């Protein structure tokens, strides 16, 4: 084991050895060094010693030469001017180098770990991204599903709304033939007949317009009057509301404007009113004051729209689940998507909130959203 | 055949018919057609109006819409059936509806309704029904 760590060699300016400390023999295991030996031969690995000797000049601080490795040990060289002579100090820096190597190795291992962590992080991030993507896709899918369900309901609505005028038209047409057979057909009959038919057909055409607007794909956010959206939804359901004996009261200031997609808000109102209609129908007792109210107020720049009915409210045991996807109290007749999508639409596209509570006579949904500008 | 038809026709003429529908256009159009065939035709736009009229007159056939504000055709039928005493003449109740029976199971209740006619309905279908009621009736 080399316990000595440093040795000194004095040389002339031609790198010939003048004298040295014994420790050089121990360090380099070099026996029989003779004065006048060329130091360049002794330290053959050391490049640039000659140049260093010449370039040393009058420097006091000396020159640090590159380290060498011999038989697994590392040596460091410094060259100084010592009067007329040159002094070469040789230090065994094996331990330091090994420690440095160890440190380097640790550092490399750390770097490897960090790079692995980094890779794992990236993998996790990409897993998160694809999970978020999947959620988004499933939300889109739900949105599509609920839109289809709503379309189905709307088509059923149109069909139902058309049956009545179609029935009347059928009766009127038969009446025309019947009047002819009974010899009651005259100009006045035909005029009245035509007016009645025209009124019915225009009404059917209006139904189509209402629903067509609803189904038009909207890609641009728009500003619209809240009261208009409510009235459109009420108009679309009016035959059902009327035949169920449900009155609708709208108390919304005409200057309240919201930003988003009008047809989506109409979809929410149709859904809320549809649920109220189902709730009214499910009640056995005869109720002569069936009512749905839409009431909006402005609070701190936010619109707060309350939609209430008098259908008795939602069972307290399930009220906190009504916004859960696929939750329904209607068995096979419900998809469990209506209120879930309503909440998603309010939060994502109207930057608002949708909540529910039971009032004194029935359910009360509160829709809060920022006021828009026209 | 002609005489046989006329005989039934006369029987139809003597029926007391009530037409109940909240839609005024349907009510008016149907009443015009019915009046050409039946002498006594009354019309009502709601369950309560129908029950008021029924309280003061005897009716053989009630043709009622199913869904109306203030009460359904089934509620009207139930009220009529409750007033029918054992041995008394059973009122023929025909329900007209835009619903299908699997949407509204009540429509299939034969203790309430004698016939269900889907909307839109062809008037001859209704007249055939009246003839069959009149044919069975002892006048």
Description:
The complex is a heterodimer of chains A (374) and B (139). The model of chain A has no long low-confidence stretch (mean pLDDT 86). The radius of gyration of chain A is 47 Å and the shape is rod-shaped. The longest helix of chain A has 88 residues, at 94-181. Chain A has helices at residues 23-28, 39-42, 49-55, 94-181, 187-215, 226-243, 262-282, 338-349, and strands at residues 6-11, 17-20, 63-70, 73-82, 85-92, 222-225, 247-251, 257-260, 291-299, 302-309, 353-358, 363-370. Chain A is of the alpha+beta class and 374 residues long. In chain A, a hairpin with a 2-residue loop joins strand 3 and strand 4. Chain A is built from eight helices and twelve strands. Chain B has 139 residues and is of the alpha/beta class. Chain B has helices at residues 2-13, 24-35, 47-56, 73-83, 123-136, and strands at 16-20, 40-44, 61-65, 92-97, 115-118. In chain B, strand 3 (61-65), helix 4 (73-83) and strand 4 form a beta-alpha-beta unit. In chain B, helix 1 crosses helix 5. Chain B is globular, with a radius of gyration of 14 Å. Chain B starts with a helix and ends with a helix. Chain A binds chain B through residues 160, 163-172, 174-175, 178, 182, 196, 200, 242-245, 286, 288, and chain B through 22-23, 25-26, 29-30, 32-33, 36, 67-71, 75, 96, 98, 119-124.
